[in-house]
Amino acid sequence: MRKAIIGGTGVYGIGEDIFTRIVETEYGNVEVDIVKIHGEEIVFLARHGKSHSNPPHLINYRANIKALERLGVKNIFSTVAVGSCNDKYAPGDIVVIDDFLDFTKVRPITFHEGGEHRVKHTDMSDPYCRNLRKEFCNIAGRLGIDIQGDSVYICTEGPRFETAAEIKMYKKLGGDVVGMTNVPEVVLAKELGMCYAAVGIITNWCTGMKSEAIALHDIQGALGKNKERITKAFLEIFKGELNQENCMCNKAIIEL
Ligand code: HPA
Description:
By secondary structure, this protein is of the alpha/beta class. The protein has one domain (3-255): Nucleoside phosphorylase domain (Rossmann fold, 3-Layer(aba) Sandwich). The chain contains 5 helices and 11 strands. A hairpin with a 2-residue loop joins strand 2 (18-25) and strand 3. Helix 1 (61-70) runs parallel beside helix 4 and helix 2 (130-143) packs across helix 5 (216-238). It is globular, with a radius of gyration of 17 Å. The two termini are 32 Å apart. Residues 81-83, 156, 161-162, 178-180, 203-204, 206 line the site of hypoxanthine.
């Protein structure tokens, strides 16, 4: 199985011809769905768990990505629910994430822990796979999915939302959208030489951007409208052959 989808908040499954599998890793066990689509088995992983029970700071990111590697996955598309701190992107919009700023604090961030495995660093010139991002933009154009643009993702520790002063700072630093989960997920995929791309569904204005407070019904509305269209685009891309000839994702490890 070479292709996987990681579903973020609001995206808990794809397809109907499914069986569930538990994958064992040294970081813990992970439950995934294996979905048969166009004759090919695709892996689906719900980032927060099927019943949305793992908060962002407690998600076992290493187990999740290791489990996908164990299944042979090379290409991952994910969805992330995000708030917008850029006036250009409004709730309901879709953006492709092309870089991140990391403000996480307490989560394990790497597979590379030195010792007998030596010291390894990971090149972050292209944190999100160039090729998968391009594929998504092409397919989105054909399927009539409007992409508002590329975005810099601010990753906070959560689970609380941000203060208005924090959002002011993130805007000044060049952030466009804010979420709590894409780091270290994208980094861990790169550490294992996988191609990874994330599509952001804007669910709300960030704190202080507009006068209203963040509302749950807005978040659910934005997710409901977009999740089907985005996963359809992922599956359309997965119909084709994907290789690692047009990106550097499997050459990012720098060993000293
Ligand atoms: N902040 C952080 N994470 C989020 C937000 C937000 O405003 N919306 C959805 N995930």
